[in-house]
Design goal:
By secondary structure, the chain is α+β, with helices and mostly antiparallel strands. It has helices spanning 2-10, 47-65; strands at residues 22-28, 32-40, 75-78, 85-93. Strands 1-2-4-3 form a four-stranded antiparallel sheet, with helices on one face. The protein starts with a helix and ends with a strand.
Protein backbone atom coordinates (compact mmCIF):
# COMPACT_ATOMS: atom_id res chain seq x y z
CA UNK A 1 0.00 0.00 0.00
CA UNK A 2 2.76 2.41 0.94
CA UNK A 3 4.60 1.65 -2.29
CA UNK A 4 1.39 2.23 -4.27
CA UNK A 5 0.86 5.63 -2.62
CA UNK A 6 4.45 6.68 -3.23
CA UNK A 7 4.36 5.52 -6.85
CA UNK A 8 1.11 7.38 -7.52
CA UNK A 9 2.54 10.55 -6.02
CA UNK A 10 5.88 10.25 -7.80
CA UNK A 11 4.08 9.96 -11.14
CA UNK A 12 2.11 13.16 -10.52
CA UNK A 13 3.18 16.34 -12.32
CA UNK A 14 2.26 18.43 -9.24
CA UNK A 15 5.09 17.03 -7.09
CA UNK A 16 8.05 19.42 -6.93
CA UNK A 17 11.05 18.25 -8.94
CA UNK A 18 13.90 16.90 -6.87
CA UNK A 19 11.62 15.83 -4.00
CA UNK A 20 10.34 12.39 -3.06
CA UNK A 21 6.87 11.71 -1.66
CA UNK A 22 6.60 9.83 1.62
CA UNK A 23 3.83 7.54 2.81
CA UNK A 24 3.15 6.18 6.29
CA UNK A 25 0.71 3.85 8.04
CA UNK A 26 -0.58 6.12 10.82
CA UNK A 27 -3.39 4.30 12.61
CA UNK A 28 -4.75 0.78 12.84
CA UNK A 29 -8.08 -0.71 13.92
CA UNK A 30 -9.85 -4.03 13.46
CA UNK A 31 -11.01 -3.19 9.92
CA UNK A 32 -9.02 -0.16 8.81
CA UNK A 33 -5.53 1.14 8.31
CA UNK A 34 -5.09 4.90 7.92
CA UNK A 35 -2.30 6.01 5.63
CA UNK A 36 -0.79 9.44 5.17
CA UNK A 37 0.90 10.67 2.02
CA UNK A 38 3.13 13.75 2.09
CA UNK A 39 4.55 15.49 -0.95
CA UNK A 40 6.03 18.85 -1.82
CA UNK A 41 4.78 21.31 -4.40
CA UNK A 42 6.55 24.33 -5.89
CA UNK A 43 4.17 26.98 -4.57
CA UNK A 44 1.54 27.28 -1.85
CA UNK A 45 -0.72 28.85 -4.49
CA UNK A 46 -0.84 25.47 -6.26
CA UNK A 47 -2.16 23.58 -3.22
CA UNK A 48 -5.85 23.38 -4.21
CA UNK A 49 -5.07 22.01 -7.68
CA UNK A 50 -2.37 19.76 -6.25
CA UNK A 51 -4.83 18.21 -3.80
CA UNK A 52 -7.35 17.47 -6.52
CA UNK A 53 -4.75 16.15 -8.98
CA UNK A 54 -3.13 13.95 -6.35
CA UNK A 55 -6.41 12.43 -5.17
CA UNK A 56 -7.35 11.63 -8.77
CA UNK A 57 -3.96 10.03 -9.37
CA UNK A 58 -4.22 7.93 -6.22
CA UNK A 59 -7.72 6.71 -7.11
CA UNK A 60 -6.57 5.81 -10.63
CA UNK A 61 -3.50 3.96 -9.32
CA UNK A 62 -5.58 2.04 -6.77
CA UNK A 63 -8.10 1.03 -9.44
CA UNK A 64 -5.28 -0.28 -11.65
CA UNK A 65 -3.90 -2.26 -8.70
CA UNK A 66 -7.37 -3.47 -7.63
CA UNK A 67 -7.05 -1.76 -4.23
CA UNK A 68 -10.49 -0.91 -2.88
CA UNK A 69 -11.03 2.20 -0.76
CA UNK A 70 -13.62 1.87 2.02
CA UNK A 71 -14.58 5.56 1.84
CA UNK A 72 -13.57 8.63 -0.10
CA UNK A 73 -10.39 10.35 1.06
CA UNK A 74 -11.71 12.50 3.94
CA UNK A 75 -8.78 14.72 4.81
CA UNK A 76 -6.45 16.82 2.74
CA UNK A 77 -4.52 19.69 4.23
CA UNK A 78 -1.32 21.64 4.27
CA UNK A 79 1.51 20.35 6.41
CA UNK A 80 2.33 22.78 9.23
CA UNK A 81 6.04 22.00 8.96
CA UNK A 82 6.48 23.21 5.35
CA UNK A 83 4.48 25.74 3.38
CA UNK A 84 4.85 23.70 0.22
CA UNK A 85 3.82 20.29 1.57
CA UNK A 86 0.39 18.74 1.17
CA UNK A 87 -0.75 15.64 3.03
CA UNK A 88 -3.62 13.30 2.29
CA UNK A 89 -4.93 10.48 4.43
CA UNK A 90 -7.58 7.84 3.86
CA UNK A 91 -8.91 4.88 5.81
CA UNK A 92 -8.50 1.77 3.69
CA UNK A 93 -9.92 -1.70 4.05
CA UNK A 94 -7.31 -3.97 5.62
Amino acid sequence: MIDALKAAAAASPVVARGTLPEAYACAFSDSFVTYELAFSIDSFALSQGAKSDMLGGIVDAFLRLKIHIATAVPEVGNSPSRDSAVAASAPLVA
